[in-house]
Design a protein that fits this description.
By secondary structure, this protein is of the alpha/beta class. Strands 1, 2, 3, 4, 5 and 6 form a 6-stranded parallel sheet that branches. Strand 1, helix 1 and strand 2 form a beta-alpha-beta unit. Helix 1 runs parallel beside helix 3 and helix 5 packs parallel to helix 6. The longest helix is centred in the N-terminal third of the chain and has 24 residues.
């Protein structure tokens, strides 16, 4: 059996209590309502780019959790190539948020980042207790991933300015659901102190057992 890697990529620690998940940001947006989502995603991409830079400085790994768009032969490079080289609607977003060499990548077939993927294994390996969920769409893939993270007793942070949906009202409603039901921290990225997230807190199950 090979010895345990002390450092998976040279720049990213192989142990971190916190992980930044970027959900479906490698996206051509070539679908119905894609233009509406693009309008909402523009400010999101700028805020998320800044958050990712801050996370890197704190030693927080970035994990791209991305749909395969029904193409089972796709991989990260094919998806990137399509979004960056072809004249697609989502090109400007991908240009701002493309992965660095030391980022992780998980390909998902459905809405949740956990469904039939290696995300569980990766988070266990990193010993993650807190996930920062970002990306699109707030009311679909972000929400489904948040539900599954909550059921795994992971602490949830969903910065409201780093997620987007094609409708501002739908976006706000999904955030409120995650705040109320999933106990997510939905403050803006500027309000969240990343260094404080490394401190492990009781799980939501323990909170529930103790009452509110």
């Amino acid at each position: 059996m090979p010895s345990r890697n002390r450092d998976l990529h040279g720049n990213v620690p192989d142990k971190s209590g916190v992980a930044l998940l970027l959900i479906d940001v490698i996206n051509d947006l070539e679908f119905d309502d894609g233009q509406a989502l693009l309008e909402q995603a523009r400010p999101m991409a700028a805020a998320l780019s800044r958050l990712k830079s801050r996370a890197k400085k704190e030693g927080i790994p970035a994990i791209y959790v991305n749909d395969n768009f029904g193409r089972w032969q796709s991989d990260l490079q094919k998806l990137l190539g399509h979004c960056l080289e072809d004249e697609v609607r989502g090109r400007e977003i991908v240009q701002q948020l493309h992965p660095d060499e030391d980022d992780y990548f998980v390909l998902k077939p459905k809405h949740s980042g956990f469904f039939s993927t290696t995300l569980d294994t990766l988070l266990d390996y990193l010993q993650v207790h807190t996930v920062i969920l970002t990306g699109v769409a707030t009311n679909i893939c972000v929400l489904f991933t948040a539900n599954d993270a909550y059921m795994r007793d992971l602490r949830l942070v969903v910065p409201s300015d780093c997620v987007a949906a094609n409708d501002a009202e739908v976006h706000a409603h999904a955030l409120e659901q995650m705040r109320m039901v999933l106990k997510a921290d939905v403050r803006t990225s500027l309000e969240i102190v990343l260094s404080e997230l490394s401190v492990k807190t009781p799980s939501h199950k323990e909170d529930a057992d103790g009452g509110e």
